[in-house]
User: Fold these one by one.
Assistant:
Number 1:
Amino acid sequence: MVRHALKKRSKKAGLPPGSLVHIGDKKTEAVTANVLDYAEDHCSETALIEIEQCIVYRDMPSITWVDIEGVHDIQVLEKIGQCFGLHPLVMEDILNTDQRPKIEDYGDYLYIVLRMLGNGSESGDISSEQVSLILGKNFVLSIQEGAKGDVFEPVRTRIRSNKGQIRMLGADYLAYSLIDAVVDNYFIILEKIGERVELLEETLISDPGPQTLHLIHNLKREMIYLRKSVWPLREVVSGMQRRDSALIRESTGIYLRDVYDHTIQVIDTVETFRDMLSGMLDIYLSSISNRTNAVMKVLTVIATIFIPLTWIAGVYGMNFKNMPELSWVYGYPAVWVLMIFVAIGMVIYFKIKKWW
Amino acid sequence: MVRHALKKRSKKAGLPPGSLVHIGDKKTEAVTANVLDYAEDHCSETALIEIEQCIVYRDMPSITWVDIEGVHDIQVLEKIGQCFGLHPLVMEDILNTDQRPKIEDYGDYLYIVLRMLGNGSESGDISSEQVSLILGKNFVLSIQEGAKGDVFEPVRTRIRSNKGQIRMLGADYLAYSLIDAVVDNYFIILEKIGERVELLEETLISDPGPQTLHLIHNLKREMIYLRKSVWPLREVVSGMQRRDSALIRESTGIYLRDVYDHTIQVIDTVETFRDMLSGMLDIYLSSISNRTNAVMKVLTVIATIFIPLTWIAGVYGMNFKNMPELSWVYGYPAVWVLMIFVAIGMVIYFKIKKWW
Amino acid sequence: MVRHALKKRSKKAGLPPGSLVHIGDKKTEAVTANVLDYAEDHCSETALIEIEQCIVYRDMPSITWVDIEGVHDIQVLEKIGQCFGLHPLVMEDILNTDQRPKIEDYGDYLYIVLRMLGNGSESGDISSEQVSLILGKNFVLSIQEGAKGDVFEPVRTRIRSNKGQIRMLGADYLAYSLIDAVVDNYFIILEKIGERVELLEETLISDPGPQTLHLIHNLKREMIYLRKSVWPLREVVSGMQRRDSALIRESTGIYLRDVYDHTIQVIDTVETFRDMLSGMLDIYLSSISNRTNAVMKVLTVIATIFIPLTWIAGVYGMNFKNMPELSWVYGYPAVWVLMIFVAIGMVIYFKIKKWW
Amino acid sequence: MVRHALKKRSKKAGLPPGSLVHIGDKKTEAVTANVLDYAEDHCSETALIEIEQCIVYRDMPSITWVDIEGVHDIQVLEKIGQCFGLHPLVMEDILNTDQRPKIEDYGDYLYIVLRMLGNGSESGDISSEQVSLILGKNFVLSIQEGAKGDVFEPVRTRIRSNKGQIRMLGADYLAYSLIDAVVDNYFIILEKIGERVELLEETLISDPGPQTLHLIHNLKREMIYLRKSVWPLREVVSGMQRRDSALIRESTGIYLRDVYDHTIQVIDTVETFRDMLSGMLDIYLSSISNRTNAVMKVLTVIATIFIPLTWIAGVYGMNFKNMPELSWVYGYPAVWVLMIFVAIGMVIYFKIKKWW
Amino acid sequence: MVRHALKKRSKKAGLPPGSLVHIGDKKTEAVTANVLDYAEDHCSETALIEIEQCIVYRDMPSITWVDIEGVHDIQVLEKIGQCFGLHPLVMEDILNTDQRPKIEDYGDYLYIVLRMLGNGSESGDISSEQVSLILGKNFVLSIQEGAKGDVFEPVRTRIRSNKGQIRMLGADYLAYSLIDAVVDNYFIILEKIGERVELLEETLISDPGPQTLHLIHNLKREMIYLRKSVWPLREVVSGMQRRDSALIRESTGIYLRDVYDHTIQVIDTVETFRDMLSGMLDIYLSSISNRTNAVMKVLTVIATIFIPLTWIAGVYGMNFKNMPELSWVYGYPAVWVLMIFVAIGMVIYFKIKKWW
């Protein structure tokens, strides 16, 4: 996952800053743009065909949320950039879909980068998608990388159905709602990981194998990845709280504090999973070595019992002319008795020493 | 424990902030609300039947402590929220019983989240319950998750019997007393853990086994969990100290400093236990491997002594026509002497080398 | 040691703050109080019989050092508290003899907690005693837990004999002298530990055994304990330096800087010992495994040489009718030659491969 | 690589500060100096023959970029120093080609040290070259150590072809462009390392060997080295941002923030690789020990099956006169049946126990 | 080395601060004092016989460097202290030759402690000597512990020969030059350590043994020691830079920044060596275990091949009356063929499984 992100970067090396080069996977679907324009008393939803239509909404007093899916069509993005007056570096960052979460203040608007996680694939691997938010005076522009599906559906429903106070509040509250939706989604992802951790824990006790080790390491790596997505988010949210930008009203601060709390909770959980996985690695390694030792010990004990017995048999297999025992009537049974005694004695000795 | 908390969260994903959804375990007991109203010269105790009755106490000059057990009845909590004018986010946090300790200033009141630990179960596992405190001008609202029993009984007794100066001081001193009771309880929990650590240490020397490893790891995990509860508490208490809220009188600062000290001491002890458990893990691993090595060594030595002897016996078991030794009168005893010499020689050699 | 401290705490859980409960080991010796009253030109020493006599000294212009040994008699301590006007929380902390070092400013006086280490026992374990210092305008109250002996004798001697400038300077210099005496004592303790570390290091090379491991772990645990005593002391001393309390004259600052330096040096040494012990643990583990491997290797080589030889003997022990070798005149010597060659060949091969 | 850097230093020990001694590898190529002088409307490129010609450009209003390759000719560098009025310590640092990245403000100019990485060699090892930038009012002086090739070609192309806004902006933007080129190059290096990490990961699963261990350690060491180059760079860039030097216009700040972001991303990736390599080391060690254990187990099982069988054969090889079994008609087949049963029984037992 | 330093300290425990007790190794050589008095136009050098002669230089306008070797003669040092008006605590610290580097401002003068490293002994162990610098208005007093040789010779030469600008600048520049000389010397020490690390690395690959482990641990310990000397130095130099003492001119700041850079570089290198040594320890441990495993595996394989063969031989060594194979004409050769087949089959199987 990491290497993938890097590969994309090298296409851009050497270009002037602000050059628009899409470095993600090539896609062929058209970029879609949905506009949700609402105020306390109305709410309209449009799928834009010509991206230039955006401009209509920019200066309207109502709150406008333009949601764009797909960043692979550079022409479309350039138009959006012109329409909303975005800085070339912002445009570049929107296209570089391997950004870490960050917040940047461009005066007229705030530029926020988030990472939206998905867990759609069968293998349970986490997929990650970059979401760029542009928070202006009365609009929010959200640009998703364009994987199918997003986590904003509940926010849309709330706006459409006028649930909660979202329609009564400004664009900053909308931006908060989107960030909150992304963070809430982390809890769902963590829950699924939690299930895998629990399953792994059971496997660890019932039937540990080399497979278990790989699963532990896969989960550990996902934790590294998750941490990279969530840690900077904390700074983003606290940055929004502290920032004395006119774009964020004081009343929204209380909600940002809430989402900050959630972020901390996510980080806490990720750290706890890391600690648990480290503990599981220790248990795995020591259970594997315990098992091997148990096998080796029992086998060695068996070998150790029969080696002296074999020697006894060997002694009476010698061909010396003068071996009186061989002619004794009870010589043969006596040797059997001897051998049985030795064997039982060794077993008892091993049992006493708890070696068996 | 961690996964459990997460599971509860996903019920809420996508709802607007402030939505009241109880995400803890469903309970059927009724929510109980006890009111303790006191001033220097009087003290009355009432079990509320209708939660709206609270409102009477809110504006009385005497100090009122409303103690609510159970957060699973949303109607009841909504009424409380309206009664005391709590922010929807506070209400939400009260219901989300997996919060980390925190303090939030809402102007009229402070909202404090604590985690109260219990050690009731037979297995010795630590259970954890969220306690929300609302500290207003002359009231304290404490909302427990509702597990049976709490750690506030001594505070109640002190108020009832007018012991100490609690009745003479304000609501902030009551809030301090409740936090102090929670922290004092940590010492009792740590004591019990200390006993288990000590027991484990003895087992480690007398009879280490795979069970010991699991016990060490269980304790380690509990330490991770405890740490998560106690670390943020430190910030909560120091936050209360520093905060220039009119709700906390200067005279209470000295008591908060005291409870802060206790928190640090709890953290110190948790860290010491962690260090001790790490050391015990090292000792366990090395004692297991020492033991296995000891077994293997003795067994290998036995095998090694008998293998050459078996060879000697094998040599004189060969059927060559022309083997002069076989016909010697003292051939057989000589071989016995040889074998005894070889065996003794090897034993001596092994003893000298300290291999046995 | 840790668990012990905790055990004591639970006696207090639920009591109002400032409740005087001695939670240390019960003792029967009477609490002793010695007063050393001095100025530039005089010095008188009295053993107080009635503790109320203290009050005489409190308001005298001369410097008074009241040294109390034993905190198990609550009546005595209550009288002292009243006499010097100490806050109930201070009284409580004096009795709770498991405090971490700290400094608290109560306006009229500074309350300082130190931990005085002792190394009296035969086993070399470090014992620890709490020393509380109350620094007032012209008095210092030192309250020791009451183990026999302390580290303040040189300070007493200096006052009695008017050595150095101690009599010319104020109570803050006396407090500094006491702290300095405690820190100087740490160097002696560290020296003794240093000797044990060195001894251990020699044992590690000459004769490592399971005992060595336990010694390393014991020392490691003592380092954890020492660290807990010394780390907060650093903050105490730097806190005294920074504090703009009228009780500490500027001229004393230079001496506090000196004792701060010493504290840092103690911490440095503790950290170095920790690093050394970690290194020793590594060496121990690898030397143990080297040794086991050496044993196993030699034994395996011996077994490996004789197994083919035994097989050769076995071959000529077969009872086939038609085995021409058996009838050869030189068959038997030839087999001996063969076996000797095989044995020598294998030894040479093992030597070349450096396996033996 | 580290030792190499140190070796060079000792030539200088004891000389007065500002002594110009080249401590890098001796080179024989002539030092080359290229001048790129440009303004919005013109752009001229000259290869300087006499270094003193620089002086012409110093005071011209157009932006001048003097790019010097090679620091081994002290005379040339001294002339440059005089020409641009550089401080002797700057001159010294330019020659000491083992500096860590840093920024120093000398009033008239900023002195910036970067490390440019190369990955030219066949073995894939990273080579590192020091680049010193002197940012003056309207000139940038870049001094490279002089390995063939650099990462500034795209910047040159942009100036020549007037692509982007580089010609319109000042010397600070040029300096930013050079730093950006260096950081962009890190992404390419990281990509190549990413490929090696991935390859290593495949080898780790398919065919781990001692070679794998060395590869992991080599990559780990390169990560240490990379980290040393990149970490201080972060401070350099944030230092440029914060610095209230008249040399850096506010409009450039936004670009520096961008390059700062990239630096953070590089650091993040380096840390991720380090974590991945640590994980791979764990997997390697456990896979090696798994493999050895598997071999040992199977071999031990084989030995264990045949040892009892050999004993049975030994028993009936004894020469007792009175061994009735030997005379039984079906004695021999019965022994075979016995041996086969024992062997199969043990195999089944081992299979049940999952030891085989 | 650590224990040694501690031992010395206990001589001093209990003495009043400022007591002059030399706690280093007793030496018998006389303390030598050399005076180098210089200004832009003159330079005189004197070996003082009577230490009181110092006083002449104290108030002269020219810069005076008094260099004292040996701190074991307390009378001499007391005279120096009186002569330059040094604080008793400074005198004490000069004698306590186990100080960590520090800087203290006494108004009239700065007191700086450095640790000068030596690498003179054959074993390559680092020796360490305390150097105290007293920087006054126009004098520098340097007091060395008195091991033969120091690192200041190049500074002396520069003053004598008027090389560089040292004679033109003040006492603060002289102090800087001495610190710079000490830091430059660290590079030489690190270089020698670098050579040992490289040698060790080669040994690690060619012929690792228990000796290698001890060498790694010795180097690791030296790194701990070096770190203790260098880390606080960083604070000393940055403290000199920041300090608004009239004793340090602004023009010297630029040189202090340079020496600060060097200190950081030394710390960086020490950390890199530590990382490398940790990596080498890992490689050592895994190469040792690889080797042992290789030996065990081959030996086990040999044993495993011959055990079944021995059993076959044993079968035909049985004495059953009725063993038809024994009478077959080709029975004996057939058994040989069988045994050869079995042996070859197993070898092939082992080769296929890559166990051999």
Number 2:
Amino acid sequence: MFGARCLLRALRSCSSAPCPRHKPTAKLSVRDALGAQNASGELVKVQGWIRSVRSQKEVLFLHVNDGSSLESLQVVADSSFDSRELAFGSSVEVQGQLVKSLSKRQNVELKAEKIEVVGNCDAKAFPFKYKERHPLEYLRQYPHLRCRTNVLGSILRVRSEATAAIHSFFKDSGFVHIHTPVITSNDCEGAGELFQVEVMEGLFKTTTMTVLSNCPEDVELCHKFIAPGQKDRLEHMLKNNFLIISYTEAVEILKQASQNFTFTPEWGADLHTEHEKYLVKHCGDIPVFVINYPLALKPFYMRDNEDSPQHTVAAVDLLVPGVGELFGGSLREERYHFLEQQLARSGLTEAYQWYLDLRRFGSVPHGGFGMGFERYLQCILGIDNIKDVIPFPRFTHSCLL
Amino acid sequence: MFGARCLLRALRSCSSAPCPRHKPTAKLSVRDALGAQNASGELVKVQGWIRSVRSQKEVLFLHVNDGSSLESLQVVADSSFDSRELAFGSSVEVQGQLVKSLSKRQNVELKAEKIEVVGNCDAKAFPFKYKERHPLEYLRQYPHLRCRTNVLGSILRVRSEATAAIHSFFKDSGFVHIHTPVITSNDCEGAGELFQVEVMEGLFKTTTMTVLSNCPEDVELCHKFIAPGQKDRLEHMLKNNFLIISYTEAVEILKQASQNFTFTPEWGADLHTEHEKYLVKHCGDIPVFVINYPLALKPFYMRDNEDSPQHTVAAVDLLVPGVGELFGGSLREERYHFLEQQLARSGLTEAYQWYLDLRRFGSVPHGGFGMGFERYLQCILGIDNIKDVIPFPRFTHSCLL
């Protein structure tokens, strides 16, 4: 038998070379350079774009950023390096010594020994100007370049950290990650129905705190974009955890394998904007309550929560015995037969056989929720327009790139 | 200013209740129950499906599985619990004491005090039969139920672990995760072109070893499905790391922000099967070499590797100065103007303005690769048909669920 241990041996014997990421290398990201403790003249190489140039009589100061952090690395060079090519927007590779900075503004700086201009920047044609703060609406016209600005770079990094935090949250809670299909033959839920989720503090708080501790500067920068008067709105959103609920059959089906979650692109009408959106969905035992639901819809997915002062429902499927002993055997079967009849009457029995099957072959109570990932990012960053938290937004009549 | 620290305070003040996942609860997953060290009669609750029933004179043995692990939990009950409803496929909730097992087959077992049948299973109609080993082709007909079998459950768990390992690999290597659009207006690459990647050992080995150490039993089970004679093929695949290369513009554009990777559903023709596939893409400094590439295609993405005995190329864009000093300033500009002319001649200048822009506003050398995630799973598991490593496969004339 060709077992796991044998496979491990085969892999180990593939090559005796160490894994590439453990290779010692003189090349550093700006982030790593800035984080270097006790810099004492090590020879390193840094690549990035020039964010500012300051030329003095005998010294040339450059700020170089490679997108790995909000802060740029200060490069100090002899004025002999000065050239017209060393300009805002150009990409450079700098070799030199990483040293402690004498200024209090930064811990380390790079004493340049060699500066190579890798790519020139046509400053006249370049849509972003040196030292100018461009509004988000303006940046939106340049989806292929805007990630080089501070604010969009910050959003991308926060987005990445938030994604990782959501994955960790579910993994640590014992959920299995699944990939749900993007093309489906089922019209599993009416698009554009909005629900408000009251309780999902665990996910919301854990991930937000991870993001805050991993990229506080990026979050801080985004908050500068909050219009005056919106501060209260953001605090209100954060306190009330307004999230969008959604649900699909894939998560429900795979509940049979284990409690699971997905992180999947979806399409939906949302605030009169059609766009691709990412939804985080889970199916498992974290309790979730829904308020302001469309009463006429989805009677099978909802259960009245009588203890609640508001009209709330638990997002569970009532066809299966749900949260407690409220629904006994007879009611359960009654509901199953009701659905069976409804489907037969509409000629949908074949199309929804899978749904009936799930309920006659050892059904289980289950609940779930969906969270709009872009809404979550808007919420923690205070970014007003959803198009600014999506790298390449698609909306009506617009599919740039 | 409404900063990160202020946000953190606001979040903390939302509720003083601890995060749900830290709540002490008597409910255990089968995996956690099996892993309990020094079980000594704690009262716990376990939910799952009955995998086997063995009725003796005075004792009833059940095996219960909830999809959290390959191994099932043995439930020992008084024969008075015996009933027709406690049958293969039914879902149950068992309360009882978790104790050390006297048998050598398992460490712990659950001494049942209460057994509730949550969902009956219509055994006659249920397509999976007790103790029968169904071939993968047969299981494929029941995409909504097959995740309850051992082999598909194993694949789902391995898939989840592999996804997490790939995310960790890139995060640890300093990459930013990005979501690329699913709908695009660019025909960025010809579908179905196959390349073979020679070197990507870091990703391949690290993730595979993580999967092997996190779910060895699941991998072991999948290997049992390898047809005789395929063992050599699997070993060959593992030694040669055959992977599929692909590339899109989004990863390239966002390279400007940082080195990045994506994990995105894509469509493509592959081995005459059209299906959704997941591709892991990266853009950064991990060297990647491509062999057997279609010579006529993508001259701008390829660079000859003269040191290689085979005809290999590095997957870099030649329009920008790439791997070394081989391409000086003049050749670089020559190539840019060549492309500019080609686009103008084809009337494509407007559509590809973004591509030209990336090259005139501080271009940077970049390379990348794509890995077919489902092929990777096939490779480490030895699963012959790609449809069996995808939860809900889509192919010509088939979009079940």
